[in-house]
Amino acid sequence: MLTAVMVAVAAKAATLPADSVVRAKSISVVRADSVVRADSVAAARTVRLAAARRDSLVAARRDSTVRARLDSLAAADAARVDSMLQAADTLRHRLPDMLPDSLAPIAAQARQMKQKRDWSTWKPDPKRAMWLALIIPGGGQIYNRKYWKLPIVYGGFVGCIYALMWNNMMYKDYAQAYLDIMDDDPGTASYNKFLHLGSQITPDNEERYKTIFKNRKDKFRRWRDLSFFVMVGIYAVSVIDAYVDAELSNFDISKDLSLRLEPAVMPAGGVGQTRSQRATIGGGNALGLQCSLSF
Hints:
This protein has seven helices and two strands; from the N terminus they run ααααααβαβ. With 295 residues, the protein is mainly alpha-helical.
């Protein structure tokens, strides 16, 4: 019995080193796996960093290539624009020599238009003067350089506007006074401000004042309307004056305005008769005086 126990203990003692060896081996294997995993992670990270650097280098090279291409295109465009400007400048200087004889007057007129306008020979355009007078009162007179007419035009407008406002105010006052005197309300008595000092409206003179207020109301209304129509007439006259003035500025009148009296031989039978009628009458020629007007 003791021998069996000792054998079992010896066998168990013999198995203990084997288990420790196995455990040590397994631990070393685990450690080797962790090292391998760490190395693989580091290798993958290194690969990713290398790929990112490669991509950045490729992008930088691509950007530099694009920039170089854009710079070359910009330089080519600048050179092309400079050449076009030089060609246009050369053509501008050579254009008068290249024009045919038929276009030479047009080129000369264009050069004259660029120069300062000679107001002594300037002639206004009638249509432009009319449109300016229609849009702006007095604009046609300004365009025709007839500045002395502006006080007449604007004075007429100002006078008509003042008369229109004054007559309209008086019309409203007398219209209200006429309405107040026609009603039976003693509280409405605006007509009292039109009465003389000490005057009062009584039943004896009420009808007379009603007639007076009505006539004055109608009179100021007519004057108000007349002021408006006069203002429209002044506007129309200013437009017509601007057009006629511009039209007459192009009318050529000779400086030789002369009236001459000359002797003339006139038929005795009268003007408009035939030769046979003159022979029938038996009259000869008569000496007369004719008047000739040059303009």
